[in-house]
Every structure is written in C-alpha cells, then in structure tokens.
Design goal:
Blueprint: H1 12-35, H2 42-60
Helix pairs in contact: 1-2
C-alpha cells in the first residue's frame, strides 16, 4: 500500500488558489442547495461542511506576522 507524502511543499500562491477554489465551490453548492427541495440537501450539506472544515484547517496552519517589539495594532 502506498504511503502519504508528509513533506508537501505548497507556495503561498498555491494556498491562495486552493482557498479561492474552495470558496467558489462553497458558493456554487450553496446556490444549488437553495434551488433544491429541502429533503434532498443532506449530501450537499455534508460536502459544504467538509469544505468549511478544510478551510479552517488551512487557516489554522497559517503563520501571521506579529512584531517582536512595539505595540501590535491588529485590524
């Protein structure tokens, strides 16, 4: 059985492209869910939930800049 590569190298641009594609998928799936009857939404809602969770994992892996000295003004 093949093993997973745990040394994946993605650039910031790659991550941005992935996030943009996932957000586009969310928009498409959300619009389609509005057009469907309510009883047939379960598969689509599961997919939307999984995409949101993946976006959360990507967000949690980002390293945000905070200055070592001085006052940090977030915004």
């Amino acid at each position: 059985m093949p093993q997973y590569n745990d040394m994946i190298e993605l650039s910031v641009e790659d991550m941005d492209l992935i996030e943009t594609a996932l957000r586009g998928s969310i928009a498409t799936l959300s619009q389609a869910a509005l057009d469907e009857p309510e009883n047939s939404r379960t598969d689509r809602e599961d997919t939307l939930r999984r995409i949101h969770e993946l976006l959360g994992k990507l967000h949690d892996q980002k390293v945000f800049f905070r200055p070592q000295k001085g006052v940090y003004l977030g915004g």
